[in-house]
């Protein structure tokens, strides 16, 4: 009987750990490395070196948009994009046009001046 009690406690402990791990994974925001990887193919267009965004760029923007489903994800992605546009400055003049050129609504303007907390 004592063994059965230990087995139940062990199973409950494993379930609790799994639930905690799932909650942690669900609440994790999109990382800057994911954002950078998704939009890297867009740099040529963003910097004015291409007439339109490449298919790889648009696929990356669509993928990022679908992964950034929570408010925390969108804020994290926004902060990363804001930082990127700020680093490249004026040379990123086409960056704001990428979502519309790709037919994706990202919900925030791509700009070094955007308030990502909203």
UniProtKB/TrEMBL annotation:
CDD domains from the UniProt entry: nsLTP1
Family as reported in the entry's similarity comment: Belongs to the plant LTP family.
Endpoints of the signal sequence: 1-28
GO biological process, one term: lipid transport
Functional description taken from the UniProt entry: Plant non-specific lipid-transfer proteins transfer phospholipids as well as galactolipids across membranes. May play a role in wax or cutin deposition in the cell walls of expanding epidermal cells and certain secretory tissues.
Domain annotation Bifunctional inhibitor/plant lipid transfer protein/seed storage helical: ranges: 32-116
Organism field: Digitaria exilis
Name of the protein in question: Non-specific lipid-transfer protein
SUPFAM superfamilies given in the database record: Bifunctional inhibitor/lipid-transfer protein/seed storage 2S albumin
Keywords: Lipid-binding, Signal, Transport
MF-aspect GO terms: lipid binding
């Amino acid at each position: 009987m004592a063994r059965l009690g230990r087995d139940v406690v062990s199973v409950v402990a494993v379930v609790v750990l799994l639930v905690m791990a799932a909650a942690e994974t669900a609440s994790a925001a999109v990382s800057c490395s994911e954002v950078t990887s998704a939009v890297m193919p867009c740099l040529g267009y963003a910097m004015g070196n291409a007439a339109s965004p490449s298919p790889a760029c648009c696929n990356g923007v669509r993928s990022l948009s679908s992964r950034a489903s929570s408010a925390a994800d969108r804020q994290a992605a926004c902060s990363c994009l804001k930082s990127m546009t700020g680093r490249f400055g004026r040379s990123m003049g086409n960056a704001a046009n990428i979502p519309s050129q790709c037919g994706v609504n990202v919900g925030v303007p791509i700009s070094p001046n955007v308030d990502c907390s909203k």
